[in-house]
Amino acid sequence: MENNRPNWTSRVTFILAAVGSAVGLGNIWRFPYIMGQNGGAIFLLVYLSLILTICFIPLFAELAVGKITKKECIGAYESVNPKFKFLGFLNPFTGVLISSFYFIVGGWILNYIYLSLSNTKIDDFGNYFSLFTQSSIPSCGFTLIFLLICIIFTARGIKKGIEFANNVLMPLFALILAGLIIFSLSLPNAHLGLEYMFKPDFSKVNAHMFLAALGQALFTLSIGMGALLTYGSYIKEDKSITKSTYMIIFSDTLFALMAGIMIFPAIFSFGLEPNSGAGLVFVTLPYIFSNIPHGSIVSAAFFILLLAAAVTSGISIIEVPVASMTERFKISRKKACFILFWIISAIAIPASLSFGVLDNVKIIGKTIFDFLDFATSNVLMPLNALFLCIIAGWFLKIRGEQFISNRFLAKLFDIGLKYIVPLILVSLLYIGLK
Ligand code: PHE
User: Fold this and answer.
1) How many angstroms separate the CA atoms of 432 and 434, rounded?
2) What pLDDT, in 10s, does the model give residues 243-280?
3) Domains of the chain
4) Which pTM value belongs to this model?
5) How many C-beta atoms lie closer than 10 Å to residue 20's C-beta?
6) Of 18, 216, 222, 351, which shows the fewest CB atoms inside 10 Å?
7) Does any ligand 1 atom lie closer than 6 A to the CB of residue 24?
8) Quick check: CB of 216 below 6 Å from ligand 1?
């Protein structure tokens, strides 16, 4: 079986795939709305500090564990100690839960592509968005179409499509974002948005915000559900992962900041609320598009490129359970994808309906959609990242000197991996969940 595992054709393909996994809805949809709910600039400050100081450690460790063990998550954990099998299993489980709400947002994008291409005129975008998400059949239908797109790409193998999407479409996406930023900054009162993003109000610091920032950092960098471990396991022996780690962090942060600078000035200019939740971007963007020349063409182009970014992330989420099913349970890739389609649909449909007919179903006071988002980003991903650091630092004994030439930095990495990051993860989980 070992020899039948897929491999990246080149290091560039691997880097592109890993960056493609990181850059997605987490940057454009989730980052602005979580920042808007957690006090703006102060959240950004905490988020960036977490990314620059601690997140690169579990990111690197996850890729390294995959590369060293050459196994999917369950097998990788089991090869370290058979007792860890259960912890490995938590990764594909988290993946299935993430897909179940991620693909709903993917469905919203498909709907907005349809709106732009059909040139539909809408007066009140806030009202339109709530009516659409409350509608049972259209919103579930688009969710299933998005799921199908990702499943088909995954069923065809890990490489096809990813290279094109990342080589051609991502630079185009950055370009369109840059254009929209210029427009957004030229709006009246744009400076209020910039102040909201960059002038921290220290009185808004609270424990919950730290957990939200950590959850967002892990989510956006694809850490803590085995996506990077699985992608890392397809790397051929001789390829280094240090450069990939920097590339992922750099591109991901760039896209998130660009999304923020595009969205917040527009929010303040149009008099919208930054803390309005998951619909934030889907209400603000149409306002921007309806105010620029050839808005519907720009809007179609924007949402198509966002779709590409979401698909390359979606593929990496599904790849985790698919790899576990094919390698552990010897199910063919196509069959695994078929089974997963049904499992994810069974959770995604009620989650999608939780904006409408099922909105009174609450789990710990949250709708099904909000619960899935919270449980994965704020609980399961930090937990998985914690187990991963312990396994990498204490059992596989991954050491900084193996890949960092500067001795001081290498030592710092070791201390971070073995002590500091696990301690921070435990404390944030404890404080945030209390
Ligand atoms: N990082 C992706 C995004 O920002 C989402 C993702 C999470 C992908 C976890 C893989 C694993 O959209």
Assistant:
1) 6
2) 889 999 999 999 999 999 999 999 999 889 999 889 99
3) 2-433 (1.10.4160.10)
4) 0.94
5) 28
6) 351
7) yes
8) no
